């Protein structure tokens, strides 16, 4: 039995069991039996299929009949060769988790707003040039991963979403919309490897943010308003062009990890006051020997990398 068919079958055979027992089942039948079960399931719109795990299965299109799985809650089609998403996908309105990462998808239909129960959506490492404006209507969405695409911007008003985790790294984003500051539920924001040169003042209203990755962007300045992000625990500025740190950085009492590797920083004296720092990376920085020794003495409990 080829891998694609086997995975389809394994997902479908779970339908004969209760949801709590599905994860504990492993079964295999002959290819003929698998085909029969698959066809039968397609003709049972009320079937109990809750998960379809079809990653790395050489799919070039979505499986035909996918829209009939109306009870489907999780669909994993990552690591395939899908280029176009058929409209059938949007009929799966009970989807909570959707993973389309590592395909060749070039566009995303605005009809995605039909998936009102979607909690986690990953479409990393594809060829998206933009996201549909309607994506902000996904009121249940908490996790969004669009990293590794060709995006030049994020939809506005992204701040209207209740998103908690946003990964938009490895794109071509040049600026953030002002509405980003309204995304008060945001806890982790990954924007590394983009073309961002500055942060809007509204950005520093994200007082619940715990992790911020701005690495490998052409940023030249870190505003003093960074002190507003008082819940911040992880800050990654590696590979940026920041030449100095604002004194206000010392007010980030929750900060545990700070990565400044590969930056042109020379004066890091403000870091002395970050007493709760657990990890500090200054690899590649032109820090004077005296500064290095001072850091070792003042941050005795901090893991240092030079």
End-to-end gap = 53 Å
- Report the count of strand segments: 12
Any idea of the CATH topology of the largest domain? Answer: Leucine-rich repeat, LRR (right-handed beta-alpha superhelix)
Percent in helix: 10-25%
Average pLDDT for all residues = 87
Using only CA atoms, what is the Rg?
Answer: 23 Å
CATH superfamily of the largest domain: Ribonuclease Inhibitor
Structure write-up:
The protein is mostly loops and 306 residues long. It has two domains: 1-133, Leucine-rich repeat, LRR (right-handed beta-alpha superhelix), CATH 3.80.10.10; 151-306, Leucine-rich repeat, LRR (right-handed beta-alpha superhelix), CATH 3.80.10.10. The chain has three helices and twelve strands, in the order H-H-E-E-E-E-E-E-E-E-E-E-E-H-E. It has helices spanning 3-13, 31-42, 289-298; strands at residues 51-53, 74-76, 97-99, 120-122, 143-145, 165-167, 188-190, 211-213, 234-236, 257-259, 279-281, 303-305. Strand 11, helix 3 and strand 12 form a beta-alpha-beta unit. Helix 1 crosses helix 2 (31-42). The chain is elongated, with a radius of gyration of 23 Å.
């Amino acid at each position: 039995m080829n891998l694609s068919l086997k995975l389809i079958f394994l997902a479908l055979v779970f339908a004969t069991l209760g949801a709590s027992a599905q994860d504990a089942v492993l079964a295999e039948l002959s290819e003929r039996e698998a085909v029969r079960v698959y066809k039968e399931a397609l003709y049972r719109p009320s079937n109990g299929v809750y998960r379809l795990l079809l990653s790395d299965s050489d799919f070039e299109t979505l499986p035909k009949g996918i829209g009939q799985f109306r009870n489907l809650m999780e669909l994993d089609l990552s690591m395939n060769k899908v280029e176009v998403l058929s409209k059938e996908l949007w009929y799966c309105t009970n989807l909570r988790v959707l993973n389309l990462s590592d395909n060749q998808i070039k566009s995303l239909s605005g009809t995605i707003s039909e998936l009102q129960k979607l909690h986690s959506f990953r479409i990393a490492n594809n060829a998206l040039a933009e996201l549909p404006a309607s994506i902000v209507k996904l009121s249940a969405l908490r996790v969004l991963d669009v990293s590794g695409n060709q995006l030049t911007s994020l939809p506005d008003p992204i701040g209207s979403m209740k998103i908690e985790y946003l990964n938009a790294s490895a794109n071509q984003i040049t600026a953030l919309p002002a509405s980003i500051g309204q995304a008060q539920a945001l806890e982790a924001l990954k924007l590394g490897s983009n073309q961002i040169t500055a942060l809007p003042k509204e950005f520093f209203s994200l007082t619940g943010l715990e992790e911020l990755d701005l690495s490998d962007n052409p940023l030249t300045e870190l505003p003093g308003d960074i002190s507003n992000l008082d819940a911040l625990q992880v800050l990654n500025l590696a590979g940026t062009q920041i030449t100095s740190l604002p004194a206000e950085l010392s007010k980030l009492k929750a900060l545990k990890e700070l990565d400044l590797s590969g930056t042109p920083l020379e004066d890091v004296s403000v870091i002395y006051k970050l007493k709760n720092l657990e990890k500090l990376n200054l690899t590649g920085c032109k820090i004077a020997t005296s500064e290095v020794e001072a850091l070792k003495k003042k941050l005795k409990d901090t893991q240092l990398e030079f």
